């Protein structure tokens, strides 16, 4: 189990980011926050690309 998987047992990505990065029990701290931010940004970019694809066709 990764640190991210362990943390997600207790909180969702949105809850972690909404905490203002002040996490009382974060397993890896800033590294985890950076990884989650990257995953959220990638998911948002993918969703935007999928939403734009039918309009472009």
From TrEMBL:
This is Uncharacterized protein. The lineage of its organism: Bacteria, Pseudomonadati, Pseudomonadota, Alphaproteobacteria, Hyphomicrobiales.
